[in-house]
Amino acid sequence: MHNDEQRPMWSIGTVARKTGLPVKVIRHWSDLGVVPPAGRTTAGYRCYDAAAVARLQLARTLRDLGMGLGEIRAALDREDGLAEVAAAHVEALEAQIRRLRTHQAVLRTVTHRTTREGLALMTRTAHMSPDERRALIHHFLTETLDDLDVPHFREGLLAAGADLPENPADDQIEAWLELGELIAGGELQPAMRRMAQYAADHGPGEDDPAAAEEMRRLTDTWTAHVREAIDAGTAPDSPAADPVVAEIVAAWLPSRANTDPTVTTDGAEARGLLLEQLTAASEPAVERFWQLLCVLGGRPAPPSLARAGDWLTTALRANPTPGARATQLEALYREDSDPWPSGVLDACARVQSTVAALIRDTRPTDFDSPTPCGDWTVRDLLDHLVWENILWGGLAQGTPPTSGHTDDHLGSDHAAAFETAANEALTAFRQPGMLTRTFGPAPGRRLVEQLVIELLVHGWDLAAALGRNRDLLPDLARAALPVVREIYGDLPRTAGGSFGPPQPVPDDAPALDHLAGYLGREPRPTRSDRH
Question: Is the pLDDT of residue 529 over 60?
Answer without folding.
Answer: no
